[in-house]
Design a protein that fits this description.
The strands form two sheets. Strands 7-6-5-8-9-10 form a six-stranded parallel sheet, with helices on both faces. A four-stranded antiparallel sheet has the order 2-3-1-4. The C terminus is likely disordered. It has nine helices and ten strands. It folds into two domains: about 150 residues, no CATH class; about 130 residues, Rossmann fold (3-Layer(aba) Sandwich), CATH 3.40.50. The chain is α/β, with parallel strands linked by helices. Helix 2 crosses helix 4 and helix 2 runs antiparallel to helix 9.
Length: about 290
Amino acid sequence: MALAIVNREPKDQPIPSGTLVWRTCLREVAFGEDPEDISTNSDDARPLVEGDAYRLLLEILCGLQSPMLGETQVLGQFKAFLAALDRSHGWLNRLGQRLLTDAREIRTQHLQGLGSRSYGSAVRRYLTTCRHTVLIGTGKLANEVLPFLADEGRTVDQWGRAVDPGIDGPAVRTDAITYRPLDELEHASVSTQPTVLIIAAPVPSAVVDRVAERYSGLLSIIDLRGELGSAPLRANVPVVTLQDLFAQMSASNGAAIRHVEAAKADIASRSRRYELRDELRPFGWDDLCA
């Protein structure tokens, strides 16, 4: 078996049906046991195999391919992707566990010095004068952001369809958070206190506007959806986009060069070890011809 991947931006040319694809808001990674299984007609999405594929996957999981250098959200997204695989894809699950182990060790050894690199810490920079926030979303991204919204004495209104029972809630002061179901939105009273609204779920802009109508003191909106084609949000309210957050973080990337170079050297070494690995064949060499 040879590891083969295609890494590309979402919504490029179609990947062959039946292909395993890990999707994030910034990329699609198709997995196969043969480059021919995942080949596309795009010159910009040629398959990478074995050590080259392993190296790129490690760089992605360590946040080195992300605009927010060293971000941690991508690691959780990959874990969720692996958890959803069925038994017929055991080879990818085994490979994924090896990747996760390597990525955690690399982060611990080389990337801790980058400081706080998370969506929550980036969002908090925009809340210095705000004592109340509104969060739309109940999933993993929302749970990552929530502790940063509810600290320093702030209160939070969290709007969502349902709290995902498979996701552990963050360790925050529960008295600071009020959960509000979206289906009760029309009956909610209007708040006049100064508020920042954070979108941490793939909801339509029409839903965002309906939530925003309940906060007459709305100061700004922080949109973490990353949807370049999303409809405009409320007029006359400043909007901070995901790209704005990435630009904010890039200003501090220069100081991280030494850490990044050390991490990349470690990744290259681990990729070579993966390429030279000995695969266990319980039935001897005869199973190669079975």
